[in-house]
Here is the input.
Amino acid sequence: MQKWTVNEAQEGETITGLLLGRFPELRLEEAQRILKKGGVKVDGVRMKKDVPLVAGDVIEVYPDGDLAAFAPEAEVVYEDENLMIFNKPAGIQCVSDKMDGKPTLYSLAVDYMRSTGEYEVNSLSVPYICHRLDIDTGGLVIVAKNQLYFEELFEALKQRRIRRFYKAVVCGSVGRHSQATLHDYMTMDDGRGKVFHSPGKNTAPIATRYSLVKTNGELSLLDVELVTARPHQARAHLASAGFPVLGDEVYGNRRMNKKYDARYEALWADKIIFETGTNNLLEYLNKKEVSTQNIVFPYVDWGEE
Here is the structure.
């Protein structure tokens, strides 16, 4: 079940219009069918007519087979009283400044904390996204449940006391048993929304480790660790080394993306290791490892193992 509250920007939208905004890949006829079958409640009342909504309406959608393929499922893979770790699906943003009704990891985290009774604005018990993944990259994201632990986690990430690992399918044969640490400098071009590699003024040093898991000669599966953590680092750095991530339309190989019908980047944040040390608020997490095996790159066929 998906549940959220209509905001002021969505007031006046019809139920089907809101469904289409919430689930971008849903078609109008599919939204109408879900409504007709009684799959939507407004303030606890099951609706079968397409009516306009007002701010504050609570929408509940019950994902039968029609909706399940489109509803983002951000699984909570670890939780304690201070933080959550979500497995973010590819195709949704972590946060957004647009009031367009589309789900984000933040909105899903708000819904989750409301469902557990932990959401309380006055005490600042609200979700705080501690780091971000690109919209088309799936995987583990740490979300603090209050401001105090957000500040602690953010500082630990900055000091590299929280290590983040990825699985990546890249174009090209890296070579068996290959591993390396890449070093470079990068700068972000905000106007073009991409990064460039060049030492000089206003650039930042970056380091990325990778090791080969397997290859079929045309594609390679890598374990990747971001030693530093800069925007677009994994995608841009691997591409600059000659191994662009499959499905990446910014730094990648479009011919290979088309050949494999790769709609999303074959890049997944699959493991987090806490090396938080002692005598701090995060001491209880020291040496903890959180990982997920829920990684699906359906367009990759490795052949026989």
Notes: Residues 166 and 266 are 10 Å apart (CA to CA).
